Amino acid sequence: MAIQRLAHVGLWVDDLQKMTRFYTDVLGLEVTDATDEARATGAVFLSSRPDKAHHELALMAGRTDHDGGLLINQISWMCESLEDLQGFKRRLEASDARFHEIVTHGIAVGIYFYDPEGNRSEVFAPTGLDDVPQPYKKPVDLDQPMESLLDDLDRQHHADGIPASLAIHEHRSEETT
């Protein structure tokens, strides 16, 4: 018997409407269920794939820790491609989200940021490498054109003894066909 996957994360929040707007407008999650908005103890359930999972994120009104205590380490969301990741970076910038870091882990490239109430989250795209020892973390510039980004990732990975990503090379061969 083994755990198969993370099903959902629940967050206590101060401003349920503001947090719902952030996760729907910026990250593109869909509201799948919600209590009556007028209730002080409301809840909103969101999913990136509502046809497969009723909710992956539950926002619950009633946060009580306001002294800067650490409530979670991170919430990580996977997207399909580096192009999608670049798009999420633009959306996050437009929302005035505060960035923590943008890095390659070898196995993925991730954007770490804070939602409007300071919860750290990540949006990442897998690279296709599965055998990079963790933790591995190097800064990445997602603002450059895709070909330059791919070259930089290959260069960084190669310099650290990591073989070039098959997914990156498959991406390049798709571009040329």
From TrEMBL:
Residues 5-126 form the VOC domain. It comes from Actinomycetospora flava. InterPro entries: Glyas_Bleomycin-R_OHBP_Dase, Glyas_Fos-R_dOase_dom, GlyoxalaseI/FosfomycinResist, VOC_core. This is VOC family protein. It holds the Pfam family Glyoxalase.
